[in-house]
Amino acid sequence: MKPINEAAISFLSRSANEGFARTAAACFAAQLDPTLDEVNDIKTAVSEAVTNAIVHAYPDRLGKVALRLRLFEDGVLEIVVKDWGVGIEDVEKARQPLYTTGNEERSGMGFTIMESFMDALRVRSTPGKGTTVTMRRRISRRYSGGGH
User: Which end of the chain has fewer CB atoms at under 10 Å, N or C?
Assistant: First the structure.
């Protein structure tokens, strides 16, 4: 299926860029006229994916994080967050609630949160080469009738 619109940005794995990525995704999604709840779900999922890349992919150095946003005719928004960091040894284990490779400040709920706010979540990772998180969410068309 071919996207009807797309955008891509990349940024350094600095924590300040997490808010930038959230806002960029929300602005891109705005063309679908999402509800406030849908916008917040998108922002939360992007925040989790980008934070994972910042904290876990590059634990001891700065690296590049890429965000790709695509929109399809059926109202599906696809969000891809990619890094070229340390990768995930065991993706299935990493997707378990409360599992973390971070310090005690980390909840280990990132993938669980992404999954709960999105319709689909795919995680691909190669140790030493990086991780790609692909999320999809259908934005429901709102009724736009009545001469207002």
Answer: C
Catalytic residue among 52, 70, 78, 137: 52
Average pLDDT over residues 49-75: 94
Choosing from 18, 22, 38, 48, which is the catalytic residue? 48
Active-site residue identified among 106, 115, 136, 138: 106
Instruction: State the Cα angle at 106 between 11 and 131, rounded to 5°.
Output: 45
* Residue 46 token pair: 């992007």
Is position 6 annotated as part of the catalytic site? no
The string of pLDDT tens digits covering residues 105-146 is 555 566 777 888 999 999 999 999 999 999 999 998 765 544
Distance CA 18, CA 24 (A): 10
Q: What is the pTM of this model?
A: 0.86
Active-site residue 106, yes or no? Answer: yes
Amino acid residing at 116: S
| Structure tokens that stand for 135 in this block | 């999320």
For this structure, is 52 an active site residue?
A: yes
The number of CA neighbours under 13 Å toward the Cβ of 137 is 26
Whether 95 and 122 have beta carbons less than 8 Å apart is answered as: no
68 secondary structure, DSSP code: E
